[in-house]
Write a structure and sequence with these properties.
The complex is a heterodimer.
Chain A: H1 2-32, H2 36-39, H3 54-60, H4 63-96, H5 102-113, H6 121-130, H7 137-161, H8 165-173, H9 178-189, H10 191-207, H11 210-215, H12 224-233, H13 240-260, H14 262-275
Chain B: H1 14-39, H2 55-61, H3 65-100, H4 106-117, H5 121-131, H6 139-146, H7 158-186, H8 190-198, H9 203-214, H10 216-231, H11 235-240, H12 252-261, H13 266-293
Helix pairs in contact in B: 1-13, 2-13, 3-7, 3-10, 4-7, 5-7, 7-10, 10-13, 12-13
The chains are: A mainly alpha, B mainly alpha.
């Protein structure tokens, strides 16, 4: 009986919280489907009487906007890929090799993650200029690689730890080198962990504003995160529905990928959190 | 490649660690070292360093705006760190309870909270700016107006603007604490709760005597992670209020950004970055201490 009351209470609290977490998404969708006249009707038009896809059509018909989306995708994917590539050997060493200072390496990696890009914003710009990487995608990708690597190392170490060392030992007996074992046996078995680390890094990169804002000065190179900030500065009350549509387009790819793959990602994160 | 590989447990780690270390050093540690150098210089966005002195430090530390910025940063960080963790812990425990009872919809709810987490910070600020729109047709004010309340000066009143910034940050940030606590709670041996139930312990007693003590490490580590994250949050505030009205929502991270990009003061921005770094490093050392103890 009291368990039933508890169930009801659980649902009641979660329902309240669900309203809080869902409202911004619902409202954003609502605004993006409205005509300007209905924007001014407020909550009374939560479900628009004359819904329109015109706002999306307007935003997506702008070729610059498609370029921003493509830039965002390109930079996020390359940066996430680089982070995973850098992390794989490091995570493998931390998982399979015994060496002095391993704990120090792992904690050092965690410490690096605590340094926000904001701290290095000024020298980063000058340093990239000195390396002649300024205004090149390579500069952003390189920083994304360094930024995303720590979390990827932690997630991949946990994934490698879960693979029994005996499987590798059999291959060693058959004469395989460590590199062969890594590429032929360990990596294929760790695919879910690798995929989770890559997707997480990519989603984080998609959200990045500061790094591309500093390193890419040309409008045509911007990813969507920088572009919507700029776009917001040019909108007014009468174009709220366009800003809503632009925001939705910027938000949906990350949310959709994450929601679609969340079972895999969340279990990787949970495994990492338990070990960490 | 025909020689036999080494036994699994030995080997030199350095070649394996090299790519990660090299990239971190090249694109992270070099700038970190350089930011300290710049902090002692007189560089601006249009001109390099021509000399070194403590002038930038003096100017920044003597800036009459700094006490207010630090105060705002403290309030914003402290309130968020407490609220994020209380909300994250409550949600994690509710979901664990719901799952144990076989209630439907728990995965959907978790997904919803996580969806807010992956919204880009700039978009977060813009979305909440629309929600907080103070015009009669703004989301929250038109809802409040519908039941005869308000209007509330969400963004134009200095104190309310800070509250609004906290709400927007809670919406996005709760998921992180939720995952950490969910993982830690699931790691607790369920027989402990069964024994407690046999002994007639009520839910609150189980929470006090089992859940909280066993989550202590998770809470300690999460506190530091969330504090550092919150301390460095600026893009959502930049898009939401730009730091205003006045300096009401200008936290240290945003102040640093503004010093560089609006005042073109590289040396001053570097001093603020060093300040931010020092606070973060002190907190990282705390984490080390905590991890070392367990």
């Amino acid at each position: 009986m009291s368990a039933r009351v508890g169930d009801l209470a659980t649902y009641a609290v979660l329902a309240l919280l669900a309203v809080f977490f869902a409202t911004p998404f619902v409202w954003l969708l609502s605004l993006s489907l409205r005509t300007p006249a209905e924007v001014f009707r407020g909550a009374a038009r939560l479900i628009p009487h004359e819904p329109t896809l015109g706002n999306f059509a307007y935003i997506l018909s702008d070729p610059a906007f498609l370029t921003y989306l493509w830039n965002g995708l390109k930079l996020s994917a390359l940066g996430g890929g680089l982070a995973v590539v850098l992390a794989i050997p490091a995570a493998y060493a931390c998982s399979r090799l015994d060496f002095r200072g391993k704990q120090g390496v792992l904690i050092g990696i965690l410490a690096v993650q605590m340094i926000s890009p904001l701290v290095i914003l000024v020298p980063l710009y000058r340093w990239m200029g000195a390396l002649e990487l300024l205004n090149l995608d390579a500069s952003v990708v390189a920083v994304y690689g360094a930024l995303g690597m720590p979390l990827a190392v932690w997630l991949l170490k946990v994934a490698f730890d879960a693979i029994p060392a005996e499987i590798e030992e059999v291959a060693f007996v058959d004469g395989a080198s460590r590199l062969q074992v890594l590429t032929r046996i360990t990596l294929p078995l760790a695919r879910p962990g690798i995929a989770s680390a890559f997707i997480l890094a990519m989603v984080m990169n998609w959200s990045q504003f500061l790094v591309p804002f500093i390193l890419l000065e040309r409008d045509g190179d911007w990813p969507i995160s920088v572009a919507i900030f700029n776009f917001a500065g040019s909108t007014s009350a009468s174009t709220t529905q366009l800003l809503a549509a632009a925001c939705l387009i910027a938000v949906v790819p990350a949310v959709a990928v994450f929601v679609a793959l969340q079972r895999m990602i969340v279990s990787a994160l949970i495994a990492g959190a338990v070990k960490g | 490649m025909t020689t036999r590989g080494p036994a699994p447990a030995d080997g030199r780690p350095f070649p394996w660690l090299l790519p990660a270390i090299a990239f971190t050093a090249l694109f992270y540690l070099v700038p970190v070292i350089d930011v300290v150098r710049l902090a002692f210089s007189d560089a601006t966005l249009v001109r390099g360093a021509s000399g070194y002195s403590l002038d930038a430090f003096r100017a920044v530390l003597g800036d009459p705006a700094l006490p207010q910025v630090l105060g705002t940063t403290f309030v914003f960080t402290a309130v968020n760190v407490i609220a994020l963790q209380v909300a994250g812990l409550a949600i994690a425990l509710l979901i664990v309870r719901g799952e144990a009872r076989g209630l439907r919809g728990m995965a959907a709810f978790r997904t919803l909270v996580l969806a807010a987490w992956v919204v880009p910070g700039i978009a977060n600020g813009l979305i909440w700016q629309m929600l907080f729109d103070e015009a009669p047709y703004g989301t929250l004010n038109s809802i409040l107006g519908g039941v005869g309340l308000g209007p509330v000066a969400w963004l134009s009143d200095p104190q309310m603007a800070l509250v609004s910034a906290v709400i927007a940050n809670l919406w996005q940030g709760t998921a992180f604490s939720m995952i950490v606590f969910y993982a830690a709670r699931r790691g607790i041996d369920p027989t402990l709760y069964e024994v407690a139930q046999l002994d007639g312990a009520r839910a609150w007693r189980s929470f006090r005597s089992i859940t909280l003590p066993l989550l202590r490490t998770a809470i300690a580590v999460n506190t530091v992670l969330v504090t550092v994250q919150t301390l460095n949050t600026f893009d959502s505030i930049l898009a939401l209020t730009g730091g205003g009205p006045g300096r009401a929502t200008e936290v240290l991270a945003l102040f640093t950004f503004n010093t560089v990009f609006y005042n073109f003061d590289l040396a001053g921005g570097s001093v603020l970055a060093v300040l931010l770094f020092t606070i973060s490093a002190a907190l990282a050392a705390l984490v080390h201490g905590w991890l070392g103890r367990t």
